[in-house]
Amino acid sequence: MAEAKFEEAAIWVCWDIDNCPIPKGCKAEEISQKISSALNRLNYRGPISISAYGNMNHIPPSVKKALSSTGVVLNHVHVNSRSFSLHIFDKLLEWSHNQDQPNLMFISRDESLSSYLSEWQAEQHKNVLLAHPPNASDSFVASAKTAWLWNSLCM
């Protein structure tokens, strides 16, 4: 359950859509609601903003339209593994300095960020939530206060 100080606070969802695509069997127009429902079940009731990062050229126009229509902000990042990781890291750094958004839900498989997620949570009193694919490392899962299997959010 959410700590009282985080219940009403804003939540930024940073979604690595290349490495955690829409799960099979889940409709694009349902993603935003599924994320909101998962958060609400744990008493997170603050405003939610969802930003998806990845190579949008690989996503069909109908899927992009469906995601956008539910408020998901699509951010095209030319994918080269190093530059993509740096781009995501830069966005997470921006979030870590934002006092108005203490909650982060990170949807990714980028385990290279584990230590940063743990540090922001411990030292900056931020709240990190994680949705990850199967077979994520224990340290990656432990870097967040709460973790979900990404595919389970759409069930």
From TrEMBL:
A biological process from GO: regulation of gene expression
PANTHER family cross-referenced by the UniProt entry: LIMKAIN B LKAP, NYN DOMAIN-CONTAINING PROTEIN
MF (Gene Ontology): RNA nuclease activity
Name used for this protein in its record: NYN domain-containing protein
Domain NYN: 11-145
Cellular component aspect of the GO annotation: peroxisome
Pfam (any one): NYN
Taxonomic lineage of the native organism: Eukaryota, Viridiplantae, Streptophyta, Embryophyta, Tracheophyta
Domain of life of the native organism: Eukaryota
